[in-house]
Amino acid sequence: MLILGIETATQQVGVAVGGHEGVLASFHAARNRRHAETLVPGIEFICTQARIDLSEISVVAVDVGPGLFTGLRVGVATGKTLAHALRVPMIGVSSLDLLAFPVRFTHKLIVAVIDARRGEVFYAFYRQVPGGVQRVTEYQVGTPDDLASELLASGEDCLLVGDGALRYSEHFEDVARLEVTEQGLAHPSASSLVQLAHARALREQFVHSWELAPLYLRKPDAEINWERAR
After folding, report:
1. 85 with 109, same domain?
2. Which residue range forms the structural domain that includes residue 211?
3. Cis peptide before 66 (omega within 30 of 0)
4. What is the pTM for the complete model shown?
5. How far apart are CA 81 and CA 95, in angstroms?
6. What is the pLDDT of residues 215-228, one digit of tens each?
7. Based on the domain organization, do 146 and 33 belong to the same domain?
8. What DSSP line would sit under 23-38, residue for residue?
9. Of all residues in the chain, what percent are helix, strand and coil, respectively (each to 5)?
């Protein structure tokens, strides 16, 4: 079983391919948010590097958000098109789950934080469990100060991961027992997407392409601007 992973929820574009042998090839780029122009060449590149043909793909996995509206729209639409053309099922994974997965070995409370723009962040809390992490809160959107208040109330050792944690790090300076991860973990990883999707594929947790929908948490910026203008 080969899984194609497409990740476009933030300013980074990522694609990866893999299966029971692990991740065979991956590609990530985070410059100028050129999702539409970067995604298809990225898919072609990893197929070449892994020495596979696109027709060999068994499952298409996509990051469903939350994240930037344009990026999510490009990634989800591309994934649906490929899944329909290849006649294969899909798996959707949240961007916040993808952020938490690489730091799954910590015993601290994991807080995945994505920059939502407009002075807000998308976030969720996770705890380590055997084999990975488990989300212990709903996916949320709020201000960095809202998140800082929740962290203070928890009273726990916390590990913040994601570009939102880095951008608004000064808002968390008064929170004791807190650590923010490095820039290298700032964006969701397509490699993590393939790994998490493979585990779900073994449990046959598939969806049809027409059933998969992005997780936005709030209205697109264009719609917000239009309502304010009115």
Report:
1. no
2. 2-95+187-229
3. yes
4. 0.92
5. 20
6. 999 876 545 444 45
7. no
8. EEEEEEE-STT-HHHH
9. 40, 30, 30
